[in-house]
Amino acid sequence: IAILLFLSLFYRLFNMEFFIRSAEKNRLLLAYYQADMVLSCGGGNYYAHKSLSPGFLWTLFAAFFAILLGKPLIMLPQSIGPIEGYLQRKLSKMLFNKVAKIMLREPISLEFLKKEIGYSSDKAVVLYDLAFDLRSPSAVTTSTETIFLDFDIDIFPDSQRIRVGITLIDRAAQDPQFQNQSNYETALESAITKLIESNQAEVFLFVQCYGPSPSHDDRIVTNRFYQKLQNDSHKINILESFEDALAIREAYGLMDMVIGTRMHTGVFALSQGIPAILIGYQPKAKGMMEAIGLEQFYCDIGQINPESLCLMVNNLLDERNLLGHQIAERYLALRPIVDAWLVHIDT
Fold first, then answer.
1. Of 4, 203, 227, 285, which is most buried, counting CB atoms within 10 Å of its CB?
2. Are 240 and 252 contacting, i.e. CB atoms less than 8 angstroms apart?
3. What is the 3-state secondary structure (H, E, C) of 160-212?
4. Is residue 214 scored above 70 in pLDDT?
C-alpha cells in the first residue's frame, strides 16, 4: 500500500508514471495511468463479516487507488454489506463519498449504504444485476443442446417429468463459523427425494463456480452430495464444464424449476421465466428475490431445514404456471432499468 501511495503521489504532483519489478502488475498500473475513468466491476465485492478483513481492505484500496490518481470512479451494479468494524465502515464511507456514481443491485444495498454507512449523496442508484440483461445469441442454443446431448438427455420437454436444476455450495468450507451445512444438505436431499417420488422429477446438479479457492469450487460439494443419492442416480445428473455464462443460462432455461444457492442461478433462471427458489448466504440474494417479487421463495441458508424447504417446493409447484407469467412480466419491467447503466456512465 505504501508503494501505491508513493506512485499515486508522484503521478498527481508531477504527472510521472513509475513502475515496479513485475510485468503483470505493471500492466495493471499502466491501465490505471492511461484510463480516462475506472469502472469497479459489478458483483458482491463490498462486504466484510469480520471487523478486520484484509481481503476487504484490499478491495477498498483497489478502488481508492483510482481516486488517488485523479480518475473518476464509477461502480457498476454492486451489492454492499454487511460491513463489520468501525474502521472498515469509516473507510467505506470515505470511499463511497468519493465515487462519481454508485450503481446498486438491490434496494437492500441502498438501505444499508444510507443507514449503516451514513452515505447521504444522491449519486447512488438501484439498477439491479447486469446479468438480467445478458443477451443470448442464437448460436448459444446449439452449444447448450450439445452439452445436454453429451449427457444423453433429451432436449425436448417430457410432459411426464419435471426437470429440476440445483446448485450447491459448501458454506462451512467458506466460513468456518457456519454451523448449518448438514441441515442445508439434508434439506436439499429431502426435497429432491420427494420430487423424484411424487413428481417423477429428473434432477440436474449444476456446477456453476470452480473457484477461486477450493472452498468455492462447487464440484467438490456437488460430487459429495451426489454420492448420497446413489439410489436415484439414474434420475440425477451432474452438469459442469459449461463454456460460458450464456451456455449455463440457456441450460437453466430448459428446467421446469430451479433451486439455487448461487445468486446468479436465480438470475439466469428468472430472466427466462423459470420459477426459482433461492437459498441465500448473503443479503444480496434476498434483495434480488424481493426485486423480482418472489420473496416468499427465498430462504436463509442458516435457517433452512427439510420441512421449510419441502413446503416451499410444494408451494412453487402448485403456483408454477401462474408464477411463470408473473416472472415474465416483472422481468420485462426490470430490463429497461438495467439497460440504464450506460446512461449513468455518460452522466
1. 285
2. no
3. CCCEEEECCCCHHHHCCCCCCHHHHHHHHHHHHHHHHHHHCCEEEEECCCECC
4. yes
Q: What is the pTM of this model?
A: 0.86
User: Residue 247's CB: how many other CB atoms inside 10 A?
Assistant: 17
- 244 burial level (CB within 10 Å; 0-12, 13-18, 19+): exposed
Q: What count of other Cβ atoms lies within 10 Å of the Cβ of residue 318?
A: 10
Most distant CA atoms of the chain, gap in Å: 72
- Look at residue 137 and tell me whether its pLDDT is greater than 80: no
Q: 276 with 269: CB under 8 angstroms? A: yes
**Run of H or E residues at 109:** helix 107-115
- Which pLDDT band holds residue 99 (cuts at 50, 70, 90)? very high
336's CB contacts (< 8 A; 6+ apart) are none
Strand partners, 47: none
Can you tell me the mean pLDDT for 96-110?
A: 94
C-alpha cell at 340: 440504464
Radius of gyration of the chain (CA): 22
For the cut 60, the answer to whether the pLDDT of residue 261 exceeds it is yes
Q: What b-and-e string marks burial along 80-92, b requiring 16 or more CB atoms within 10 Å of the CB?
A: bbebebeebbebb
Rounded-to-integer distance, Cα 321 and Cα 256, Å: 10
